[in-house]
Amino acid sequence: MSSKLPVVEVPDAPPDPSGPIVLARDCRATRIPSGSSATLPAGMRVTITQSLGGQFTVATDEGGLFRIAAEDADALGQRATSSAARLKGPF
């Protein structure tokens, strides 16, 4: 007996969003917990550990933790929310 159900093709799964990301450009960041400024270079691999209020906490392969502001979300291949992108200053 043959089925009359339509055949559905399942596309390949998207890449793991919790996996490493390669920074697309140099990116300003704030070192956690010291709060000192840093620049993460283009090509550095990071993993997003938290996204809150348009800001991102990332871990580097070397073990450092950094906060990246909403205005630099594009370096991560992310989009900041429109309200978060308008916020400026340290939080």
Q: Could you list the spans in which at least 5 consecutive residues all have pLDDT below 50?
A: none
For the largest beta-sheet, the strand count, sense and barrel status come to: 6 strands, antiparallel
| Structural class by secondary-structure content | mainly beta
CATH architecture of the domain at 21-80: Roll
Could you tell me how far the N terminus lies from the C terminus, measured between alpha carbons in angstroms? 64 Å
Tell me the total number of β-strands.
Answer: 6
**Tally of alpha and pi helices:** 1
Strand order of the largest sheet: 1-4-5-6-2-3
What is the N-to-C succession of helices and strands?
EEEEEEH
Strand content: 25-35%
